[in-house]
Amino acid sequence: MRPASNLLYLLFLWLLMAVVVTFIPFLALAWKLLGFAIFGLALLDGWKLYDIKSIEIQRNVSGSLALGVWSEVTLQLRNPHLQTQKVEIFDDYPPYCEFEALPQTLLVKSQRSVQTHYRIRPEKRGNTQFSGFHLLTYSPLGIWKKYRYIKQETPIKIYPNFAAITKYTLLAMEDRLGQIGIKQLQRRGEGLEFHQLREYRAGDTLRQVDWNASARIKKLISKQYQDERDQQVIFLLDCGRRMWTQDGALSHFDHTLNAMLLLTYVALRQGDAMGLMTFSGQEQRWLAPRKGVNSVNVVLNTVYDLQPSLHTSDYLTAAKHLITRLNKRALIILVSNLRDEDHEELIPAMRLLQKRHLVLVASLQEAVLNQVLDQPVNQFKEALRYAATHEYLHSRRQAHEALNRHGVLYLDTEPEHLPISLVNRYLEIKRSGVL
After folding, report:
1. Which of 86, 186, 247, 399 could be disulfide-bonded to 367 (CB atoms 3.0-4.6 Å)?
2. Helix, strand, coil shares of the chain as percentages rounded to 5?
């Protein structure tokens, strides 16, 4: 039990009247009677509040939420008492979440229900839960309010942001993938794997013509090809300390998982098999390559609670572990945050993988580097920072060129652009036939 605003107003009125009594003494009796009346009302109102049954609350929220995406939580409040109740509610939402529209003050009529909503945005992946409700119930006259904590646990899972997959699907259905930066090369009949026969079209090459089929039906028939299917794509995810680097609200590791999910969905739609292996983390996780669009859910449940560790990235050990698990040639995509000092260990690891596989290295570049170069230089400190950034980027380019000389495909991008850049590079590799 604690005082509410109405009690403070009444006490202020009583105090104000006391000031008046000092100038008009014959009002002293009225002031005393007012004091007794306030005291009596407070006792009666407190007794009624003590006798009121607690509001019943039900929380409705999705069991899986996306990192960095606003989601709606619905609260259903029911008043079993014969009297209308005024309540103030604050949901005990999971840690590492932003929220909007909390706390809320509601009026719940007798034996009726009321529904309200608020929004949360998770900022950390993994398993978490809503714990309960903080509830303040006001007395009928608003003199008192009573605090209750209603325990109601609701476990949820915070996944990487899968909104990009939904957007990709919608745009693919309408053939408008260019709006999100996916490059689609229009081809007619060229590819690596036979798809079907169709009538000859202007622009088809002579090597596409199926002369036997054309002779049988006495019209030109062309062969139509598609990109090869049943290939394997393996993500090699760095869980080392550098992946803690953060640009904006998300870490490099979170951006990597978002990119992996989008590429997983695209590759599965292409008929390829997707797998993954983590390294330099608290634990090593391995998901054998699998096909089917529904495998996206398996990938989600494999990585949603992964977090980077404080360990140094060990590329050579990771390469040794991976080659023992792969029997078929695959496209191996290593996602990391590389430095020039990684060269001595990275090159042997890439050579080991290249013996049987095609390797693509995606290195994440801190967005602040380009921001430094874009800023005007007016002071000596700014000049030093500008020169140091140039020197760092030069060393980084040299490391990248060394990988290219060894035949390793390379992608250097800011984390925010990683999903689209990876998908475009994957599609280029499929069209080129090098896999």
Report:
1. 247
2. 40, 30, 30
- pLDDT average, residue stretch 86-103: 93
Contact (Cβ atoms closer than 8 angstroms) between residue 411 and residue 400 = no
User: Is the separation of the CB atoms in 270 and 293 below 8 Å?
Assistant: no
Closest alpha carbon to 189 in 230, 229, 217, 221: 221
CA 122, 123, 127, 129 torsion: positive or negative? negative
Give the number of other Cβ atoms within 10 Å of residue 368's Cβ. 12
Q: What is the CA radius of gyration of the chain?
A: 33
The beta-strand segments (E) located in 124-283 are 126-138, 144-159, 193-199, 221-226, 232-238, 246-247, 250-251, 273-279
The whole-angstrom separation of Cα 165 and Cα 224 is: 28
Q: Which of 334, 332, 327 is nearest to 358 (CA)?
A: 332
Q: What is the pLDDT of residues 216-226, one digit of tens each?
A: 888 888 876 65
Cα distance between residue 258 and residue 416, in whole Å: 10
What is the spatial distance between Cα 300 and Cα 261, in angstroms, rounded to a whole number?
8
Q: Report whether 152 contacts 132 (CB < 8 A).
A: yes
Tokens coding 398: 């040299």
Q: Token digits for 184? A: 């689609």
Mean pLDDT of 311-322: 92
| Two structure tokens written together for 169 | 């699907």
DSSP-derived secondary structure for 313-357: P-HHHHHHHHHTT--S-EEEEEEE---GGGHHHHHHHHHHHHTTS
Q: Provide the whole-model pTM.
A: 0.73
Residues in contact with 140: Cβ distance below 8 Å, sequence separation at least 6, in sequence order: 45, 48, 49, 83
Is residue 168 classed as helix, strand or coil in its secondary structure? helix
pLDDT digits (tens, 9 = 90+) for 242-297: 898 887 778 899 989 988 988 998 889 888 999 999 999 888 999 999 998 889 88
Q: 69: exposed, middle or buried (C-beta count within 10 Å: 0-12, 13-18, 19+)?
A: middle
Q: CB-side exposure of 309: number of CA atoms within 13 Å? A: 15
Which residues touch 198 (CB under 8 Å, ≥6 apart)?
221, 222, 224
